């Protein structure tokens, strides 16, 4: 494994002073609907509203003094943008964030609020990478990848470490998957701290490159994704794909209406604001209820940065 148990423990110690150990909540009504015991790790309560704070912070804290002087740069449609801007602010360094022009307004405002400098580009990967390369060559900033980076993956794994500390007898842990940083970190933490726990991912049908990649046994890039789960639009990377291939049992694909149903259930029954990407994990459980009957399941609620002017219900 490229990331050891020691790496994860050291990461958690490093970022602990700066992050929230988010609560784990449950709902008797949702348990009844699912026919299983569900434990929601509420990363919507994390600083800047998503798990991405963990990985961004771990990467920023390990920069040299020279790198810190020149700042950091990334491309992101939202949550990693905010996480990097806030992590940089906490360390007193500059953050340059390339964001697609159609990124949710709520996320752009947050990045600016954390002191990040936004460079807008067209909404495709080529434009994001071209704009980023220009920023890096002009500023000398260190590029931190939103998910295809071992420091970032280690940080994301700490959410599952905390979940396992509270509930060490889980049959499954389920996370949503986009670029695979959260899922890789989740799977590594389960592998090292709770080997009996199986890891599964939820993925929208409209952005199912991970499912396709695992089916074909090779990296299939994301093309023209169509889903309301705007945090899951990216392609896997060469670091996340092998980890997911080796450590994740299954990808469950869900329809858009199933995402809406799960999201609405969490909002109405748990009184929690979660974004569509977060609801994908619960949607996966509800889709394959027979598989999970009577099981104890951890769910990573990945974030709560919702554009309230654009709700799906």
From TrEMBL:
Its cofactor is pyridoxal 5'-phosphate. GO terms for molecular function: ATP binding; L-serine ammonia-lyase activity; magnesium ion binding; pyridoxal phosphate binding; serine racemase activity; threonine racemase activity. Residues 16-303 form the Tryptophan synthase beta chain-like PALP domain. The keyword Lyase applies. CDD domains: Thr-dehyd. One of its GO terms (biological process) is D-serine biosynthetic process. Keywords: Lyase, Pyridoxal phosphate. InterPro entries: TrpB-like_PALP, TrpB-like_PALP_sf. Belongs to the serine/threonine dehydratase family. This is Pyridoxal-phosphate dependent enzyme. It comes from Ancylomarina euxinus.
């Amino acid at each position: 494994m490229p990331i050891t148990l020691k790496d994860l423990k050291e990461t958690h110690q490093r970022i602990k002073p700066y992050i929230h150990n988010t609560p784990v909540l449950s709902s008797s009504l949702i348990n009844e609907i699912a026919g299983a015991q569900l434990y929601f790790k509420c990363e919507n309560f994390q600083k800047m509203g998503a798990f991405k704070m963990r990985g961004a912070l771990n990467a920023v804290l390990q920069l040299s003094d020279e790198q810190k002087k020149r700042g950091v740069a990334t491309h992101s449609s939202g949550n990693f943008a905010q996480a990097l801007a806030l992590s940089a602010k906490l360390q007193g360094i500059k953050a340059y964030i390339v964001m697609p022009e159609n990124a949710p307004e709520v996320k752009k405002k947050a990045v600016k609020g954390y002191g990040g400098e936004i460079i807008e580009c067209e909404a495709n990967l080529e434009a994001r990478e071209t704009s980023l390369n220009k920023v890096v060559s002009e500023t000398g900033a260190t590029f931190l990848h939103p998910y295809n980076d071992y420091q970032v993956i280690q940080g994301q794994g700490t959410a599952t470490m905390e979940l396992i500390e509270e509930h060490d007898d889980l049959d499954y842990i389920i996370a949503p998957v986009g670029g695979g940083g959260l899922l890789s970190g989740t799977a590594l933490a389960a592998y090292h701290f709770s080997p009996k726990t199986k890891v599964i991912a939820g993925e929208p049908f409209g952005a199912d490159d991970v499912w396709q990649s695992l089916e074909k046994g090779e990296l299939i890039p994301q093309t023209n994704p169509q889903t309301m789960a705007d945090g899951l639009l990216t392609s896997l990377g060469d670091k996340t794909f092998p980890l997911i291939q080796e450590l994740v049992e299954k990808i469950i694909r869900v329809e858009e209406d199933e995402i809406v149903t799960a999201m609405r259930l969490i909002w109405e029954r748990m009184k929690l604001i979660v974004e569509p990407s977060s609801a994908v994990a619960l949607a996966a459980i509800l889709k394959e209820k027979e598989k999970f009957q009577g099981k104890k399941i951890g769910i990573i609620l990945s974030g709560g940065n919702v554009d309230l002017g654009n709700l799906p219900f």
